[in-house]
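CATEGORY: protein folding

GOAL: derive structure tokens
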Amino acid sequence: MEKISSFTVNHLTLLPGVYVSRKDTVGGDVITTFDLRMTRPNFEPVMNTAEVHTLEHLGATFLRNHADYKDKTVYFGPMGCRTGFYMVLAGDYTSKEIVPLVKEMFTFMKDFEGEVPGAAARDCGNYLDMNLPMAKLVAKKYYDEVLSNITEERLVYPE
């Protein structure tokens, strides 16, 4: 079987960043999948499920309510390895041009106050597995250490 593209990225040299994971064409339209890598794979601890779950709820809510991207958002969710998230948008985008959206989303997440959207038994299959304080902490770390001053090496996958 052929390796899928995400398994061909060298995870030993991959730094936290904003990467185009893949581009697909569906019915003549381009769909861009972004790798929002928050921790350095195989070097840093992965995120716990509670903060990942909380960030998923916050990020999906933010994107699906965004004035410019709500109709372009296909998916926002965690990677199984718990080192980041996939953000899938309808359109042909580069990492660099999407950084302002990612900054806006992570500002929303790191500064969020109140009840986590959808964190109720009626709305979510595992609503008790949430941790807003830790979610805000990891969102702030990613914003401060990666997004606030992002460099080219964190926008293009390493060879």
Residues 49-65 form the longest helix (17 residues). The chain is about 30% helix and 20% strand. The first strand starts at residue 17 and ends at 26.
